[in-house]
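Lecture 7 notes: from sequence to structure.

We start with a single chain of 81 residues. Read the sequence below before looking at the structure.
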Amino acid sequence: MINERSIKLSQEVEELKVSKEKLEEYTRRLQGTVEELEKKNYYLEQESRVLRELVSISVTIHNQLRSFPKISYRYSDVIIS
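Now the structure, written as tokens:
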């Protein structure tokens, strides 16, 4: 009886060790995934900043180009007058 119980306990301990090792391996893989995602997120944030700046520049250029005909027209009025 005691021998059977001892064998069962030792099997349970072995199963728990295997489960613990699997969990540790899974944790290591998840940590690697988290680190990869953090790197990708960093690069995406950098790209986002660049894109926002480019959009801002293009909006500024667009606004300046929209006002250019008005300026040209006024300038031609001044020259003709």
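The chain has one helix and no strands. Keep this in mind for problem set 3.
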